[in-house]
Amino acid sequence: MRIHEYLEIVEEGDGRGQIRCVRCGHAFCEAGENYKAHALYRERDPNQVPGRGLASGEQPFHVFQEYICPGCGTLLEVDTYVPGFEGDSPVLWDIQVAPKAPARRKAGKTGKA
Amino acid sequence: MGRPRPGTTRLDPVRYEIFRHRLFHILEEGRLAMKMVSGSPVVVEGGETMCALYASDGTPILTAAGILLHCTGAMDFIRKAIEWFEEDPGIHDGDSFFFNDPYIGGQHLPDQMVVKPVFYQGKRIAWTGSMMHTPETGGIEPGGMSPSAREIFHEGVRIRGLKIVEGGKFRKDVFQTIVQQTRDPHLVGLDIKARIAATNVCARRYLELAEKFGAPFVAEASRRIIEDSEKMSRARLRELPDGTWRSRLYADTIGNREQPVLVQCTLTKRADAITFDYTGSSPQVDGSVNATLSGCWGDLFVVLASQLFWDVPWNGGMFAPVRLVAPEGSVMNCTFPAATGVTTNSVGCLITAVAHECIAKLLYVAGRLEDVNSSWRGPASTPIFGGINQYGGPCIGVILDAFGAGIGATPARDGVDTGGNMMNPTSCISDVEILELNLPILYLARRNGADTQGYGMYCGGMGPEMVYMIYGTQVMHMGLVGLGKKTPPNWGMFGGYPGAPQEAMFVRHSDIREWFAQSRCPRTYDDMKQLQGEHIYPSASTRVSPLSEYDVLLGRIGAGGGYGDPLDREPDRVVRDVRRHALSRGVAEAIFGVVLDPQTGALDAAATKARREALRAERLREGRRLR
Question: What angle do helix axes B185-213 and B13-37 make, rounded to 10 degrees?
Fold first, then answer.
């Protein structure tokens, strides 16, 4: 089951699902885990990202969190994070598909995969 | 068709569809009446109007709206009118009530409403209501949205139900009491009369339907519209996979000062029900960006109506499968008397945006790719004005360029440049000529901002940049309401980046006249930096302060979020972006890994391949494992 432009849940021989990269096949983790915790992580200062800094030169509050496939270097997600909020986990678990989700319906163009 | 339930009327399906469509067009006619009477640019150009019909207990039957935010708030006004006024002073044929308390309905004090009971043969059979944003409320700053407000008492006139029309007679005493508390009684007064006109139109037309179809048919068909919406919503949810999706964004001001504010959402979808839980978001703040519970529902409605239930008639049935968890005392369910004026341009937009990210990723897993899009621009940093105009009279105003912000990319295409605003699907970007007619300003430039788009395999739509100057007055105050300078106003999807920051710049006491003498005109940040004068980079939300003639201002509205890894963007698309000045060469190379021939601007395919390989290798080298 495709859960992301670059990620899918593949059923293993023992019936358990595993999150894999659709491009290189890299296995991240069990389907019930947060793939981001198993990705490569790079933090970027917005002022160092062309077009995302401030003309004033002021420092923004946030950093960009980049999650990268360790197998092929594909950029999987760019999250915004402002540290300092109590109880706010730095690594956001954004996709948590319940087991036995219905089959995916084909529709529209999927873009480059 | 089976046997009708006891006490109900069998509905002929053809007559039912005729009735349903007629009802919608009645409401659209009501909206048109509002536009014809109101002189406010927010209404006439911005399209910020809503008309709705409600059952006799206040349950929404059908809504027509320019601004989706308003669709949910009005039903609570009607329910409170029934609760508070049924016995004393009574609700009679020919009455209309005025409300604008965001702790009952709407987002903030400028969201003002007139509700009118509809009587047929002596019995109350329905309500009709009209809502629009009015540009002035008599708060501590002009424009109806006071960035400096710290409690709602600072924000202007707050009415919890007054009979503006009684027994068919317009209450001049009530009217004067409201409008004379504001800085622009004429404009505010026209808006009130526009709401009354709209409810009159809708009530009269609804009674014509009751005459034509009979009261039992109208009552049953109205109930059926609500029931059908619930069925359609639940059917949509059953098509989607179960699971949990999360998103978070941050505001960068609390209205009166810079301070990060966390807004996060957990979407849980099970069978035919869906929950949006905002637990974990920031506590309410000592500023003007808070949302009331009513406001939070309105913000959530924006994304439900536009992204998830876009084909479901808008009424109470659409909400039946939806549960909202907004902790009391948080920034999305503040307690009285917290200020709320700036919420629509700040936390309110983030409530929409985080729910949108959750829904987009849910829809992707469901395979509904044609419904998936990355973030729209999110909130804007919008200028508010007040002062003396070029004709010597009072003026207030809001520049609505934010209604032309960038739209998010999709799994199959780029977003639309300066494309629109999710909260207001019928809105128009400000008409420059009308603005210059009504306000003492002169536009020097308005264009799509290069490098503003959310980078990605498919890029978000660019957001507009505007440069204008104060012209023809010595008395003008201006502030900004919004966010998006020190934190992104939106998100990218699956490797796409969010749009550029919404950073404004003012040059006070500028030498612009010398530029004009040399046939020059500032259009960009770099141009602005070359102007002589006092350079100011205001916060995204800034209290109103005085300006002088020939002060120059640059504003930027947000862009759409990108979709997918920017290194997957077809190189030819990047070359086209550079040629049409949508993208700088530096960004093309650093973000997209596309190298152009320095002389011809043509694609250097070999260098591009090498550059992209180098960028991927850099990611692998610099990325670290978290466990």
Answer: 160
**Domain identity same for B432 and B459:** yes
* CB-count burial class (<10 Å; 0-12, 13-18, 19+) for B348: buried
B175 and B113 co-located in one domain = yes
Per-residue pLDDT for A111 more than 50? no
Nearest-CA distance B254 → chain A (Å): 14
B369/A42 CB distance under 8 A: no
Token readout for A105 is: 């319906």
Q: What is the pLDDT of residues A1-15, one digit of tens each?
A: 999 999 999 998 888
Q: What pLDDT score was predicted for residue B72? A: 74
Same domain for B585 and B445: no
Whether A109 and B411 lie within 8 Å, measured CB to CB: yes
Asked if B78 and B143 sit in the same domain, the reply is: yes
| Domain limit, last residue, from B196, B230, B264 | B230
ipTM of the complex: 0.93
- Read off the pLDDT of residues B512-524 as tens digits, 9 standing for 90 and up: 999 999 999 999 9
Q: How high is the mean pLDDT of chain B? A: 93
Query: Is residue B342, in this structure, part of any structural domain at all?
Result: no
Provide the pLDDT for residue B6. Answer: 54
Where do we find the tokens 């509904």? B368
- Position B9 scores a pLDDT of 62
Model confidence band, residue B420 (pLDDT cutoffs 50, 70, 90): confident
Distance CA B202, CA B26 (A): 6
SS3 B535: strand
Q: Are residues B498 and B593 in the same domain?
A: no
- Indicate if the pLDDT at residue B10 is higher than 90: no
* Structural domain span for residue B616: 570-622
Nearest to B619 among A42, A50, A60 (CB): A42
The mean-pLDDT minimum among B35-44, B164-173, B193-202, B336-345 falls in B35-44
Domain assignment present for residue B470? The answer is yes
Give the pLDDT of residue A4: 98
Residue B249 domain-assigned (yes or no): no
Residues B494 and B510 both lie in one domain: yes
Check CB contact of B266 with chain A, cutoff 8 Å: no
Instruction: Tell me how far the alpha carbon of residue B479 is from its chain's centroid.
Output: 19
Q: Which residues of A touch B273 (CB under 8 A)?
A: none
- Nearest Cα residue in chain B from A32: B243
Q: Which of B236, B240, B245, B248 to mutate: most A Cβ within 10 Å?
A: B248
Residue A105 has pLDDT above 80, yes or no: no
Using CB atoms, which residue from B245, B412, B503 is nearest to A95?
Answer: B245
Length of chain A as a residue count: 113
Amino acid making up residue B12? D
B449 lies in the same domain as B589 = no
> What residues of chain B lie within 8 A of the CB of A37, using their CB?
626-627
CB contact under 8 A, A75 and B500: no
β-strand A95-97 against B243-253: which pairing, if any?
A: antiparallel
Question: What pLDDT shows up at residue B1?
Answer: 41
Return d(Cα B386, Cα B398) in angstroms, integer.
9
pLDDT digits (tens, 9 = 90+) for B575-608: 999 999 999 999 999 999 999 999 999 999 999 9
The first and second tokens of residue B161, run together, are: 């139900």
Residue B8: pLDDT over 60: no
- With a pLDDT cut of 70, the percent of chain B lying above it is 98
CB contact under 8 A, B458 and A1: no
Q: List all residues of chain B from 4 to 33 with a beta carbon under 8 Å from chain A.
A: none
Pairwise CB contact (< 8 Å): B623 & A42? yes
Query: What is the rounded average pLDDT of the residues B311-328?
Result: 93
Chain centroid to CA B489: how far? 13
Three-state DSSP state, B585: helix
Q: Are residues B177 and B212 in the same domain?
A: yes
Q: How many domains is chain B partitioned into structurally?
A: 3
CB B538 within 8 A of CB B559: no
Last residue of a domain, one of B211, B230, B249: B230
Tell me which chain A residues have a C-beta less than 8 angstroms from the C-beta of B584: 50-51
Q: In the A/B pair of chains, how many CB contacts fall below 8 A?
A: 212
